[in-house]
Amino acid sequence: MTQNLPAHRFSVAPMLDWTDRHCRYFHRQLSRQALLYTEMVTTGAIIHGKGDYLAWNQQEQPVALQLGGSDPLALAQCAELAQARGYNEINLNVGCPSDRVQNGRFGACLMGEAALVADAVKAMRDRVSIPVTVKTRIGIDEQDSYEFLCDFIRQVSEQGGCDMFIIHARKAWLSGLSPKENREIPPLDYERVYQLKRDFPHLTLSINGGIKSLAEAKAHLQHVDGVMVGREAYQNPGMLAEVDRELFGCDRPAVDPVAVVRSMYPYIESELAQGTYLGHITRHMLGLFQGIPGARQWRRYLSENAHKPGANVETLEAALALVADKVPTAV
C-alpha cells in the first residue's frame, strides 16, 4: 500500500536540454510517484514563441513547470496558462547561474532581489490555485552568509506567500564559472539546508545537489521534507525503478527494464507518426541498463542507429537483443 506521501518527497530536477517531454514520459514508466519537472521555460518563449512550450502528456503527472523570468505580470500570465494546461505546480528558477539567464534578469541573480522574487511569487499565487514554489541556491558570489539565505527565504515566504522551496546546497558564482562548473566547484553544504529547515519548520524544504543514491536520499529525508535528484537520475534512470518502493512505501512489483522499454512503444509509434525522430526519445533511455552486461552495446547500437531515417521500434528491439537476456529477474 502506498503511504500517501507527497510527490515532492522525491523529484527529478529540471535540467535544460534533458528533462523534455520525452524524458518525462520515460521516467514516468519507472516511477509512478516521483514529481517530475520540466526544463526551465522562459516567460518570453511561452508568451511570444511560435512553438507550444507548454506541451506535455497527461500521463506524465505529477509534473511541475519551471519558469524563468522576473516580470511578475508575465510570470502570472504564464502560471495561469500552465494551470489551465493541467500542470501540478509552478516553480520559479532562482538558481541558474548562466550568463544568458543573468542577461535576462532571472535565475540565480534574483537571489539578490528578494523583494522582486516575493512580488513575482505573490503575483502568480494570486492567479493560480496550484502550488507556486521557488528553486534557489544557498548564496551568490560574496553574498553567501547564512543570514543572507535566511533573509531571502523569510522575505519570499512572508511577503510572497511561498511555503515550498527547493534548495540547491551550493552557492553560485555569477561570473568566472560556467554553469557546469557551478554544479561541481562550489562546495556542497547540506548542513546549511538542514539548519534552514530547523529555523523555518513551517516551510516545506527539499534539498538538491550531488545526491547519487536512494540511500543518500533517505539520509537527507531525516532532516528535510524532500529530495531532488538531477544528473544521477538522468544518467542512471534505473534508480527511479526503486523510488516508489523505497521512498513512498509502495508495494509495486519490481520494475523490469526490458518491459519498461516495451511500454514506451505505443508512445514512440505515436510520436514517430507525428514526425519525431526516434533518437529524440531514445537519447533519454541510454542509461537504463547501467551496470548490466550488454549495457554498452545497448547504448552504442541506439547511438549509432536511432537517428537514421526509418528508425522505429524494431530498432529498439534490435538493441534489446544485445542486453535483454542478461537482465536479472528483479532490478
UniProtKB/TrEMBL annotation:
Signal peptide: none annotated. It comes from the Bacteria. FMN binds at residues 14-16, 66, 135, 168, 208-210, 230-231. The active site is at residue 96. GO terms for molecular function: tRNA-dihydrouridine20 synthase activity. PROSITE patterns: UPF0034. Its cofactor is FMN. PANTHER family: FMN-LINKED OXIDOREDUCTASES SUPERFAMILY PROTEIN. Belongs to the Dus family. DusA subfamily. Belongs to the dus family. NCBIfam families: PRK11815.1, yjbN. This is tRNA-dihydrouridine(20/20a) synthase. It comes from Erwinia aeris.
